[in-house]
Design goal:
Layout (H helix, E strand, L loop, with lengths): L2 H11 L5 E8 L6 E9 L2 E10 L7 H18 L18 E2 L5 E6 L12 H17 L18 H14 L9 H9 L1 H12 L6 E3 L8 E3 L6 E4 L6 E3 L1 H12 L17 H15 L5 H5 L1 H21 L12 H18 L1 H14 L1
Antiparallel strand pairs: 1-2, 2-3, 3-5, 4-5, 6-9, 7-8
This protein binds 2-acetamido-2-deoxy-1-O-phosphono-alpha-D-glucopyranose (GN1) and magnesium ion (MG).
The site of magnesium ion has 3 residues, from loops.
């Protein structure tokens, strides 16, 4: 079935009013498929976001929808004046739909906005920090025990690395030969990168409710004022470490290049961007974080960057079944880019820790 027919069928199940007018594919995201669909109702055009959830990654998508319901309800209750995400319901009263092929669909309100993938505007970077810091604050009194762990051990770096090295040992597709340097580097930082998740498992850090995918393009911004409107992509909201949300955000936004830049000479961790992000983020949450959490922010940035590199590499070694790839070797290119970034974070660690301390004093 062509996509437009499929989207029309899905829209009808969710009882979207008016006549299907147009659709665009939204290319952000390495897992789910996202579309903006527009309906014409009389003289007005209204848009929605339609998503097909990747059930290879999310084995129990109904649980994601339950989690999102709980989280958005909590935020709406406490912050009624803020924009929040609304999901549409089918005639059966469900906020999702399984089609006849077994695919899982959902529809939410479209918020007119812009997102930033790479961004050089320090004010926007600081605002991104504010948005994620604010999100952490909004969930600080939310009972995480009611949430499903939709992807168990999602940010357990230690386990991610164990799995990578099992797959290296198996060398199922014979691809180890393409990435000997990367394997060697990951082996040399295995302990350091896995340290925080080990300590978390031992109860050294508070269990927070975290977003777990804090890329800057998961914040919607007002087109004109460039102020944040709402944090999106709540699929991986689960109990976790606050500093990993911080780390994942700076991993993405402080990179001088794209997440999959093939020319690693263009990949650096930009300290000015880091300072801007810290200002926004810590301005929101510094009083809520413990000293241990604050002291671990920089190590968390390194750890989650290594973790993502290991996930990309693992996917490469086992046949590219998890992340969408645009060309052969894409996951290896992503790995190299993330490792280059991780090395730069490590090199700049002292300066980054100092910036964290300064941001705390200034705010
Ligand atoms: C995936 O598809 P997207 O962009 O929302 C992944 C994240 C990675 C990210 C890297 C469920 O997120 O963990 O950090 O790609 N999400 C899942 O770009 O695995
Ligand atoms: Mg995501």
């Amino acid at each position: 079935m062509v996509m437009f027919e499929k989207l029309t069928e899905v829209g009808a199940q969710f009882r979207l009013p008016g006549k299907f007018y147009a659709y665009d594919t939204i290319k952000n995201g390495n897992i789910n498929s996202t579309f903006k669909v527009t309906y014409r109702d009389g003289e007005t055009l209204k848009s929605y976001i339609v998503q097909k959830i990747n059930t290879n990654v999310f084995h129990n998508p109904e649980e994601i929808m339950e989690n999102i319901d709980h989280v958005t309800e909590h935020i709406r209750e406490r912050y009624p004046n803020e924009v929040s995400l609304h999901f549409h319901h089918t005639a059966e009263g469900k906020n999702y739909l399984y089609d006849e092929d077994g695919s899982f669909w959902r529809v939410m309100n479209y918020v007119d906005s812009i997102t930033f993938d790479t961004c050089d505007d320090l004010a926007v970077i600081s605002a991104t920090g504010e948005a994620f810091g604010h999100f952490q604050m909004q969930l600080s009194d939310f009972d995480g025990s009611i949430l499903h762990e939709t992807i168990p051990d999602f940010h357990n770096t230690h386990k991610r690395l164990d799995k990578l090295f099992d797959d290296v040992a198996a060398n199922k597709l014979g691809r180890n030969a393409d990435c000997e340097d990367e394997i060697e580097y990951l082996s040399s930082v295995r302990y350091k990168a896995g340290q925080l998740s080990e300590r978390y498992a031992n109860g050294d850090f508070p269990i927070r409710v975290t977003h777990n995918d804090t890329k800057s393009n998961n914040v919607l911004f007002d087109r004109i004022t460039k102020r944040p409107i709402v944090v999106i992509d709540l699929d991986t909201v689960m109990p976790g470490m606050a500093m990993y949300d911080f780390g994942d955000a700076v991993r993405f936004i402080c990179n001088t290049a794209a997440e999959d830049e093939p020319d690693v000479r263009r990949v650096y961790f930009d300290t000015s961007k880091f300072r801007a992000f810290c200002k926004g983020y810590l301005g929101e949450v510094k009083h809520a974080l413990t000293k241990e959490e604050i002291d671990s922010l920089v190590l968390a940035a390194f750890s989650i960057t290594v973790e993502l590199a290991s996930r990309f590499l693992d996917d490469y070694l086992t046949g590219d079944t998890y992340f969408k790839v645009n060309y052969p070797g894409h996951n290896l290119i992503r790995t190299r880019c993330q490792l280059q970034l991780a090395k730069d974070i490590l090199r700049k660690s002292d300066e980054l820790k100092w910036i964290v301390e300064e941001s705390i004093k200034e705010g």
